[in-house]
Amino acid sequence: MKLGIVGLPNVGKSTLFNAMTGAGVEVANYPFTTKDANVGLVSVPDSRLRVLAEMYDSLKTVHATIEFIDMPGLVGGASRGDGLGNKFLGTIREVAAIVHIVRCFDDDNVTHVSGGVDPARDVETVNLELIFADIEVLERRIEKTRKALKGDKGLEKELALLERILAALNDFVPARAIEFNEDERDFVSALDLLSYKPVIYAANINDSEAGNENECGYVKAIRKIAETEGSDVIAFAAKVEAELAELDEADRGAFLEELGIGESGLDKLVRASYHLLDLISFLTAGKPEVRAWTIRRGAKAPQAAGKIHTDIERGFIRAETIRYEELIACGSLAAAREKGLVRSEGKDYVVKDGDVIHFLFNV
To answer: 317 partner at 20 to 30 Å CA-CA among 128, 219, 230, 296?
Structure first.
């Protein structure tokens, strides 16, 4: 799972990236500090792993990971190559989803590339550049389809859909805000339109507003935009996240409690990312290691097995499965077996989030 962190210069992208990854990317109070994309793996917080590791006395704990890419800042004109536009647009095509960082704090000491804080304007600036890039792609595709139409009348339906998308883009509506039926969604996904990629808007607020972001007028403005697209919104304070990154797990919890915050911005972002891409985690547990594996919701047992190793998927026999909550309530796998809670599932079993699974397979 690869997500791109995008936004205007000086909105907190690299600060958040550093807090998540500890990568030490340069942060400065001037535009285009980040000139190249930076890549980092972030562990997915999952308290279930710690509990299982204690139960099995495991030697190793391995969290699922998300790959984040901190992209160069985007400015108006990026689709024409202005600023670092070509680098930005080239990199964003590689990601599955977008985390759009929007500045939602006032600070005279932090330069704003557009001269002042206006989240709605900033969101529009980025969205328009993605739309302009998509218009160029669609116009070429439509021209090609019209030429092919002379020899293949079956392309009429495809051409009509392409023209409908182009008309919406010309009205400054991102492709993700257009309604499509199931067949159309498959076709549109293959077009690789930038404005069709799912988005999480991440509002970077003042640290004084952390835990009370619903009262922030800037955040309300972003939520209004997100509702029209079906996008998610989270709020975080980059300064708070930077301080949390310096603390160990125990002190982190105490710090969050002191601030009156239920969870960190990173936790909210991971949760939103999983929801956005329709992902879940299943678990494996034993003495050598306890581990979380990420799969698409709806994946069947052999597909989940393939996440561990392709040989397990090819030789799949069955999956011994128990719900995490049931295993913990029993206190051990042996006790769960005695109660008949360990199920033997076949190839058609749809894996659920929190399933603890042991795969049996032929070598």
So the answer is: 296
